[in-house]
Amino acid sequence: MFNLDHWRTAPIFSNSVTAWLIGGAILLGVLAILLGLRVVVRRYAQRLAATPRTELLEIPMLVLCRTTVLFLLVVALFAGSQALELGAPVHRFITTLLTIAFFWQLGVWFAAAVRVWIERRRLDTTEENRAVIGSLGIIRFIANVLIWTLVLLATLDNLGVNITALVAGLGIGGVAVALALQNVLGDLFASLSIALDRPFVVGDFLAIDTFLGAVENIGIKSTRLRSLDGEQIILANGDLLKSRVRNFGRMAERRVQFATTVSYGTPLESIEKIPGWIREFIEAEKGTRFDRSHFLRHGEKALEFESVYFVLSPDYNKYMDIQQSINLKIHRRLHENGIAFAIAPQGVIPTPGEKKTADEKPAADAPAERAPGRARAN
Predict the structure, then answer these.
(1) Which pLDDT tens digit goes with each residue over 199-247?
(2) What is the pTM of this model?
(3) Secondary structure of the chain in the HEC alphabet?
(4) Of 191, 279, 365, 371, which residue is least crowded by CB atoms under 10 Å?
């Protein structure tokens, strides 16, 4: 039962009024000094943050700015209690309170340090390395989970909880939770694998099965793509690692292979010139590297030429501009030399001024041929 007489004779109530006033004055004085120091630190941190370059003390000052008023109050309370006779139980209570407050303040400081470091890292390297955008958020999440787990365990240990038995119990329960949340945990570890291995980064254009899109965000559970049509595609990280991903963002140059077909009525002298003309047109374009151009074969209904070149840029629009220019030059040169294209199912396109006879009309069931100048970018 509650013994009131025991509390009346407790050492804390044996202090004189003078001792209480001294203790209160110490508490208020220490609290005022600590709050004043926090104001000074915050102003100094603001001045450092305003400079264009990162100063040596900038990150420590920004971290100290996160000192909480509650922690300062507990420190002031501990300082003021030293002027009083409290007794062992009250003294242990205040010491435990200070220890717990210190652990939680450490958690706040470390979490702030991680946040400041990540922000500085993002500002310094995002322009040079897009992988930072995807990995930093995952690193911050894992670091915060680890920091606050340690803080919670330290708090429970100071409260007298047997954390060894608690951790063992959590380990057994964690197995059941892991089985129930295996998909979520699988995506979490997949996100960590993506952050470390970096198969793709924010901004890369990916082809995943039937999906095409640019990476917008790499999250803890999913990765978001923006498709060419504008809609957002959300894919689980675990599914991504199991898929075959084509990353066009890592393309240094683009290989282009295209075919040109002409009619069987083309003179042999013109056939010999066509590969040289195509080479001339490709080499005239800036940002290209010619590979080859050959008379490939005698097709079923046309003479087929195959050409290959490289665009020294992954930009798709630039590739299309170059290919369009090459196609127009081929079309103009062939027409200038009276060479007819072969296009199915309509048959041979007559050169300007040439009349098409009834005998040249193709059969209705003629097989489809490739269009002239059709390119395939690899």
Answers:
(1) 888 888 888 888 889 888 888 788 889 988 888 999 888 888 888 888 8
(2) 0.49
(3) CCCHHHHHCCHHHHCCHHHHHHHHHHHHHHHHHHHHHHHHHHHHHHHHHCCCCCCCCHHHHHHHCCCCHHHHHHHHHHHHHCCCCCCHHHHHHHHHHHHHHHHHHHHHHHHHHHHHHHHHHHHHHCCCCCHHHHHHHHHHHHHHHHHHHHHHHHHHHHCCCCHHHHHHHHHHHHHHHHHHCHHHHHHHHHHHHHHHHCCCCCCCEEEECCEEEEEEEECCCEEEEECCCCCEEEEEHHHHHHCCEEEHHHCCCEEEEEEEEECCCCCHHHHHHHHHHHHHHHHCCCCEEEEEEEEEEECCCCEEEEEEEEECCCCHHHHHHHHHHHHHHHHHHHHHCCCCEEECCCEECCCCCCCCCHHHCCCCCCCCCCCCCEEEEC
(4) 365
